[in-house]
Design brief:
homodimer; mainly alpha; Multidrug-efflux Transporter Regulator, Chain: A, Domain 2; two-stranded antiparallel sheet; 11 helices; elongated
């Protein structure tokens, strides 16, 4: 397809597509002559992904380029490519290891992964942004004086594991490795807000069912 | 306890406690004489909640006052008091009902609630911030050209319902209505980030288990 059709089918203006091309977020089309290039469905798919990250995920252009670099790097193991978005998205600050709450929270969360038998996540804990945010949230609760046992998290974690299995099943229904990695990026940017919205709706439903509105 | 002890036990400076008192975020202590007031465990608990909202949730002071007003209003039905935080926290923009994607997404999400049998959430949909964010996220996916059936969300929603049941069970293990409402606020501010972190960790675990790191 020509640039005009790519623009029409994606809803992205030709000026914006040209900008993405210049910034290397979109591979050049197949050059037909000096002024015309041809684009295919892969361009369209990539364009939608770029737009999702920029418009919905508010990911800066340089970061989008970095994420796509990981998504496309087939020298990387698939599990790493699937994690591209999470590892490249804005990160929480490094926890302060001189802080007793942080140290206590880290130990408790490492124990939690042990209890869950999540040995892969445990092995990656020291470099994982997800583990870091869990530690920071746990430390915040302790610092606020809330005394709680990490055991509380076990059933939550098991449900989240089921959610992750749904994620993977959906992804595996898609063919190529490249597409899988793209879907994983979309999942992080677009599906997490839906998950939170569903959680809050479920709370409304369950709370009203239990306590009614009298 | 005196102000100094309240400060020590909460980790909040006396100056900040005095500020919260002036702003009406904390009820005055029992006046003992012209310069001394006495505080109890309820003050301590409320102080921690206020600090959680301000420091971790980044909720503005005026909004904290509004949320606490709902939490404390025992003329409101309990289900409403429990939802105080969600309804008072920063809201997404009102969806544009002239937009075909929004209208389509709203219909699809109403249908989803029907399929799930969430009749209470369905009845509140027109005023629910959670439903609004679900519609906005669904509309964004459609606008980006991702063609998906809302059926995909059914198993996710069922898992989130189980999460909400855990939330309620935890809350019900706490005695008074006031405490329940406080825990619901904390849950929104502090527990949702943990839920997302657990989701991402579960993805790491499951992805590495399936695809390894070769």
């Amino acid at each position: 397809m020509r640039l005009a059709e790519l623009s029409e089918r994606s809803g992205v203006s030709t000026a914006t597509i040209k900008y993405y091309l210049r910034e290397g977020l979109l591979a050049p089309g197949r050059q037909i002559n000096a002024t015309t290039a041809d684009y295919d469905d892969e361009h369209l798919r990539r364009l939608r992904l770029v737009r999702a990250m920029i418009q919905v995920g508010k990911v800066p252009v340089a970061k989008v380029r970095e994420v796509l670099g990981h998504v496309d790097d087939d020298s990387l193991p698939l599990a790493t490519r699937l994690g591209s978005a999470v590892w490249a998205l804005p990160q929480l600050p490094e926890p302060d290891e001189d802080d007793d709450f942080v140290r206590g929270a880290r130990l408790a969360m490492e124990e939690l992964l042990g209890t869950l038998g999540w040995s892969n996540a445990r092995a990656m804990a020291s470099v994982s942004p997800a583990f870091r945010s869990l530690v920071l949230a746990a430390a915040a609760l302790r610092r606020l004086g809330y005394d709680w046992s990490p055991e509380i998290l076990v059933p939550y974690a098991r449900l989240m594991r089921e959610v992750a299995e749904l994620d993977m099943a959906f992804m595996e229904s898609h063919a190529s490795e490249a597409e899988k990695a793209e879907i994983a990026v979309l999942g992080t940017v677009l599906v997490e807000p839906m998950l939170l919205a569903l959680h809050r709706l479920a709370q409304e439903e369950e709370s009203t069912r239990r306590y009614g509105f009298e």
